[in-house]
Design a protein that fits this description.
Distance between the termini: 18 Å
Number of strands: 0
Number of helices: 11
Radius of gyration: 17 Å
Helix content: 55-70%
Shape: globular
């Protein structure tokens, strides 16, 4: 599984503490840290495979819905269902890592409803509906990942916040929500301006420049490809 393609958000509780207006995010890029970050994140525990599989399937479901690739959407939904079924084995590790049992139960119960809804969205090939449900599934995976994130990685929640806003832009384009799109882009630009100095000594300069170039293109052109380029540039920061 490519580190670069894994969703990013297991650190969302710390993100929420820093940025109270940001909701839960897709998760697991923080789960498989690169060696430099791992050295500073000794408290991190590798998330159980079903949690990582669920997150990957949720983001693949989002990607497929965004592009209207219904065969891929059915495949991702099948994998999300299999990962959800395998979560029965995660309860002990989740609570042992400090997770609250009631949160585990809430996440699992919510997934059951989400996946039923996703199945209906796929059957009627409703892109907007499926994008929204896939975001919910990714948030459940984020909830399940939280106990396994170390507390020493200060960069992870900052990038998670940027990733959430990029995902918001992608979702707004699918919904043809111009107001929501520009609000998310404005939030992204303001947050990036405030975070750039804090991240500058920790991340590769070329990747930071790539993000700024992608953001600059969006000021004059807001295609799905351009928004995806911005999203991918945020993911790439994780390797810096």
């Amino acid at each position: 599984m490519s580190q670069r393609r894994q969703p990013f958000l297991a650190a969302r509780r710390r993100t929420l503490a820093a940025f109270a207006t940001l909701p839960a995010l897709p998760i697991a890029t923080a789960m498989t840290t690169t060696a430099p970050d791992a050295a500073h994140d000794a408290d991190a525990i590798v998330a159980p495979q079903p949690v990582l599989d669920l997150d990957r399937a949720a983001m693949d479901l989002f990607d497929a819905a965004e592009a209207g690739r219904w065969r891929d959407a059915r495949d991702a939904l099948s994998r999300a269902r299999a990962a959800t079924a395998a979560l029965r084995s995660v309860e002990g590790a989740y609570t042992d890592a400090g997770g609250a049992l009631h949160r585990y139960i809430e996440a699992r119960n919510g997934l059951g409803a989400d996946l039923l809804e996703a199945g209906t969205a796929v059957s009627v090939q409703d892109r907007r509906w499926l994008v929204s449900v896939a975001s919910h599934v990714a948030a459940r995976a984020g909830e399940l990942s939280l106990p396994f994130v170390g507390h020493g990685n200060a960069v992870a929640p900052l990038i998670a916040a940027l990733l959430y806003l990029a995902l918001r832009m992608r979702r707004a384009l699918v919904w043809q929500d111009d107001i929501g799109f520009h609000a998310a882009m404005g939030d992204f630009a303001r947050l990036w301006t405030s975070l750039r100095g804090r991240l500058g000594t920790r991340l590769a300069a070329d990747r930071m420049h790539a993000l700024e170039a992608a953001l600059g293109r969006l000021t004059s052109h807001a295609s799905a490809a351009d928004v995806r380029r911005l999203y991918d540039s945020v993911i790439a920061l994780r390797g810096g």
